[in-house]
Design goal:
150 residues; two-stranded antiparallel sheet; 5 helices; 17% strand; alpha+beta
């Protein structure tokens, strides 16, 4: 049995980049926001120059929020976790692919993580990856069909 220390485990969080951070239509609070206070906690938020909260966008209702939990803010600040962005179209592609290949309809939140996993080209075959397959995708079918390419 191999016991790994925390430092040997890479933590990667995937944020919802929506249509792109540069468009303003996203929910990437860590990679596209800045520190502020919302609901009594200091964290990273989507906000304008005056500190007013701005609207978030993600194809995933569960990721469509202008802030991030303080635990993620802390992990980002101490550089214990790396945070990356996935766009709506990338999440949809991963949603379709895992549904077709595995017969699992993933939640759109999970589809963001699966989309990033496809991008990891340096993954060694001897390494283990854990992806949190949270939720059920059937609740997201309306959003998926509404955004389906014709």
């Amino acid at each position: 049995m191999v016991i790994r220390t925390d430092d040997e485990v890479k933590i990667i969080g995937v944020e919802a980049a929506g249509y792109g951070v540069e468009t303003g239509s996203h929910a990437a609070s860590l990679t596209g926001g800045r520190p502020g206070i919302l609901h009594g906690n200091r964290t990273y938020l989507l906000q304008n120059e005056d500190g007013q909260i701005t609207e978030a966008h993600s194809i995933s209702a569960g990721l469509d929020y202008p802030g991030v939990g303080p635990e993620h803010a802390y992990l980002a600040d101490i550089k214990r976790a790396k945070y990356v962005k996935i766009y709506d179209d990338e999440a949809l592609e991963a949603f379709y692919e895992i549904s077709r290949i595995e017969g699992i309809i993933p939640a759109l939140e999970t589809a963001h993580a699966l989309a990033y996993l496809k991008k990891v080209s340096s993954l060694e075959k001897t390494k283990n990856v854990v992806v949190n397959m949270s939720g059920r995708g059937d609740k997201d079918l309306y959003s998926v069909m509404k955004n389906a390419k014709q």
